[in-house]
C-alpha cells in the first residue's frame, strides 16, 4: 500500500509521509541513515533552428550526478529532535552548465559542481513537537526522522538550516528525485520559486498545526543574496520567502487522499522584466549575457504564487497526483527555475500487481508556461539566468516522463527513465528532445 496521510508515518530523505500501519513504533533517541544516488542521462542530437547563449546543446551529449549523504539525528529532550546532514556531491549538467530548460531533467543537478566531490553541510535543524491529544500517530525510523509516537493533534516547529520542501508541498507519489520522478516539475511545483540558496536549502523556521484531518503550515525562509547564488541573505526582516499551506486529508471509497492549497510570497532585490526590456532597448548592440537583468536589479520586488496539490490513492497499488501553480511572473527568478505557470499530473503503480512489491512504475505529464513580461524580454533577445536562445517562438514547454524503479537487492534500486521534451525553454524552433536515463539508488 502507498503511504498517505493517516495513522502512522515514515520519512523519506527529510520529508515525513504518513500511512496506515498495523503497529506502533518503538521510540529511538539516536539514528544514522545513509544514501547514495548515481544518475546518468543522455540526449541524442535534436533539431534547432538557432542556438543562443543559454540554449541546451543540440548535439548529442550526456550528463551525470552522484551524491552520498549521511543523515544523523538525536533526541536532546522530550519532544525535541536535532538533525544534521552531511553530503558529498559531484556531477556535470548538459551543455556544461545548468541552462536551456524550465523543467530540468535531474533533481540533483543544482547540488553538483564538477567532476570532483564537493563536501558541504546540507541540513542542521531542530524539530520540536508539542502534543495536544486526539489519539496517537506512530512514525517509523527513517532519514531525518526518529522513530516515535506523537499525538494526532500537535504543533511542530522546524527551525534552522533545511529546505522549504522538507515541510511544504508533501506528496506521496511525486516528491523525491532520488527514488521517484527525476524531472523538477514532478517533485514540486515548477512555478514555486521557493526561497533557498543555489543548492535548494536555506535558514528559517516553519510551524505546523495538526488538527484531526487538517494541517496548517506557515514558514519564513532565507533566499540568496543575489538570485540563484549560494550565499544566504540572513536579513530575514527585509528579504525573505514566506509560505502558507492548508491541507485536508480525506477518504474516497476507503482510499486515502489529500488536498493542499499553498500560497507563497518572496521579497528580494530583483529585476522586473519590463525594466530589463527597457534597458535592453536603450542599449542596442551593447548587450551580452544577462546584463539587462543586472542593470535592472536595483529595487526590492515582491513575487507571489498560488498552487493546488492533490494526491489520491486509486487502489492499494495505484496512486494519482496533480499539481497546479500560477506565479505573478513580473520579476526574474529568485531561487528556483524559469517557470511562471506549471501543471504536473501522473500515476505511480506499485509492483505488487506483478509480484514485485518493492518496485514502482511511474508516468507523468508536465507543462510549464511563462508570463507575458518574461516572454517579451526573451523574444527581444534577452538572456535570463537559465534560458535565452536569442529569440523566442513561444510555446509551452511540455514534458512526458516514465520510470521504473526496480528493487535489485535489499535497499538498492535501479531505475531506467525516459523523458520527452517539447519546446525546450518554451521555444518551438528547437527540439523535441529525447532524454534517456538510469539511476542507481541505495539506502543504508
- Which strand order do you get reading across the main beta sheet? 3-4-5-6-9-10-11-12-13-14-15-16-17-18-19-20
Radius of gyration: 21 Å
Name of the CATH class: Mainly Beta
Residue runs with pLDDT of under 50 for 5 or more positions: 3-24
Structural class based on helices, strands and sheet pairing: mainly beta
If helices are DSSP runs of H or I spanning 4 or more residues, what is the number of helices? 4
Q: What is the string of SSEs from the N terminus onward? A: EEEEEEEEEHEEEEHHEEEEHEEE
Please outline the major beta sheet. Answer: 16 strands, antiparallel, barrel
- Name of the CATH homologous superfamily: Carbohydrate-selective porin OprB
What's the total number of strands? Answer: 20
